[in-house]
Amino acid sequence: MSWLVADANGVTLRLHIQPGAKKTEVVGLHGEALKIRLAAPPVDGKANACLLAFLAERLDVAKSAVSLISGDSSRAKRVRVAGIDASAVQARLGGDRDAAVPKRPA
């Protein structure tokens, strides 16, 4: 499974999060997930809020288009981004650009 799965309405991202870092940035692949370092602490949902805001800004979508599907209190998270295609996500976030992006039926 890839870190990025596309469908007709957007994408689902599989992420590995490292909260409490010096700066917020995309690091690269961590197994089957895209690793993101966050400058926010993992306290009171601050890291999750920072993650969603970072992804919305980096992907140039509204904050309401980005939602946490699973992993509220875990480093392993799945995030849904509506209204964007896989090629735009790969261009803006990086990761393994050569990996095939599996598509789910609409």
Structure in words:
This protein is an alpha+beta fold and 106 residues long. It has one domain (4-93): YggU-like (Conserved Hypothetical Protein Mth637, Chain: A, 2-Layer Sandwich). The protein has two helices and six strands; from the N terminus they run ββββαββα. The protein has helices spanning 46-59, 86-93, and strands spanning 4-7, 10-18, 25-30, 33-37, 66-70, 76-82. The radius of gyration is 13 Å and the shape is globular. The model is unreliable at 97-104 (pLDDT under 50).
How would you concisely characterize the structure shown here?
The protein has 106 residues and is of the alpha+beta class.
Task: Classify the helix fraction into a percent range.
Answer: 10-25%
Shape: globular
- N→C terminal distance: 18 Å
Helix and strand content put the structural class at alpha+beta
Mean pLDDT: 89
CATH class: Alpha Beta
| Rg from Cα | 13 Å
| Poorly predicted runs | 97-104
The CATH topology comes to Conserved Hypothetical Protein Mth637, Chain: A
State the total count of DSSP E strands.
6
Work out the helix count.
2
Query: What's the structural domain tally?
Result: 1
- CATH superfamily placement: YggU-like
Strand content: 25-35%
The CATH architecture = 2-Layer Sandwich
Largest sheet: 6 strands, mixed
Protein traits:
disordered C terminus, alpha+beta, Conserved Hypothetical Protein Mth637, Chain: A, 106 residues, 2 helices, 21% helix, six-stranded mixed β-sheet
